[in-house]
């Protein structure tokens, strides 16, 4: 299922805009500049053209199935945009729009409705409140990040969009390649565990690095992370470990951070390398990506 997200053949952008600086413009521009070889389907009721592409007034006008739909419309229009995408057989939906459970109870209810709607149609949802997704080996930049990193072996997942942007800046400054970058957002459906499982079988991924403010299902996370860590290094920076950090995490993505002791034990059991700082996360990931893993019976 996640192959449609990581390796789609067609991408719709709901809320495509001709105005530079708007999210709907940035996503289309990044797909074009990144060299995405599949079909890009900008959608805006005004129609017209954008960056040499026809803009469709609706997905009904486009009339063909899509693999991935990126939603960048205001909150009141999100549910209709998702429903329209599902009618065109979208299997994966990325909601970039913010203003859901991280804001209030009404936002939380709408977020749950969107997740249920996708689930009912056999689709998966990334977000809402997500920066988007980048897969350099597929030349896919379905995000509103500033630039596309060059291909590499580090796959990154983060619950913080700001940290995703910082990772891209860091990768550019050190000339480090990235395989995949995933902004988890509020994790209404897809969460860290889903992507850890996908990265295990992804040939482009050599190392997994992540920033998490909370874990959705502890037992499942440990099981999947342990399986991944037997074949690829996993490095995680856990946010929200202090009282102030927990409050920040909750206000940012609606995450409820658990106790630091519990996470320390879970990471150790799963074979995860825990980073204490932003810098050490990058240092570990770079070292693992550039050096072969040791083999032999005398390796602890």
Quaternary state reads single chain
The helix/strand series, from N terminus to C terminus, equals: HEHEEEHEHEHEEEEHEHEHEHHEH
Structural class: alpha/beta
Distance between the termini: 35 Å
The largest sheet, given as strand count, sense and whether it forms a barrel, is:
7 strands, mixed
CATH secondary-structure class of the largest domain: Alpha Beta
Overall mean confidence score, pLDDT: 91
Q: What are the low-pLDDT stretches, counting only 5+ consecutive residues below 50?
A: none
Shape: globular
SS strand fraction: 15-25%
User: In the CATH classification, which architecture of the largest domain applies?
Assistant: 3-Layer(aba) Sandwich
CATH superfamily of the largest domain: Succinyl-CoA synthetase domains
User: Into how many domains do the coordinates divide?
Assistant: 2
- For the secondary structure, the number of strands is 14
Give the neighbour order of strands across the main sheet: 9-8-11-10-12-13-14
């Amino acid at each position: 299922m996640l192959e449609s997200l990581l390796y789609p053949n067609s991408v719709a952008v709901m809320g495509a805009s001709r105005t530079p600086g708007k999210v709907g413009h940035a996503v289309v521009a990044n797909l074009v500049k990144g060299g995405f070889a599949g079909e890009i389907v900008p959608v805006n009721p005004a129609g017209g053209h954008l960056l040499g592409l026809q803009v469709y007034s609706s997905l009904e006008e486009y009339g063909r199935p899509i693999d991935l739909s990126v939603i960048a419309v205001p909150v009141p229009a999100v549910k209709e945009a998702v429903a329209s995408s599902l009618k065109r057989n979208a299997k994966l939906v990325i909601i970039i729009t913010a203003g859901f459970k991280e804001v209030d109870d009404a936002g939380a209810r709408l977020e749950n409705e969107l997740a249920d709607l996708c689930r009912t149609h056999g689709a998966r949802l990334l977000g809402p409140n997500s920066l988007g997704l980048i897969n350099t080996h597929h030349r896919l930049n379905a995000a509103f990040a500033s630039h596309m990193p060059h291909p590499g072996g580090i796959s990154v997942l983060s619950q913080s969009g700001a940290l995703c942007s910082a990772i891209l800046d860091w990768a550019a400054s050190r000339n480090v390649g990235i395989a995949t970058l995933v902004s988890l957002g509020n994790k209404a459906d897809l969460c860290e565990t889903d992507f850890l499982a996908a990265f295990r079988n992804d040939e482009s991924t050599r190392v997994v690095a992540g920033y998490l403010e909370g874990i959705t299902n502890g037992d499942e996370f440990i099981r999947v992370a342990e399986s991944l860590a037997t074949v690829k290094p996993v490095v995680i920076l856990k946010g929200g470990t202090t009282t102030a950090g927990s409050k920040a995490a909750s206000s940012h993505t609606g995450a409820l951070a658990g106790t630091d002791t519990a996470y320390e034990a879970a990471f150790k059991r799963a074979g995860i390398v825990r980073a204490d700082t932003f810098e050490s996360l990058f240092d570990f990931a770079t070292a693992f990506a550039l050096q072969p893993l040791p083999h032999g019976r005398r390796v602890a």
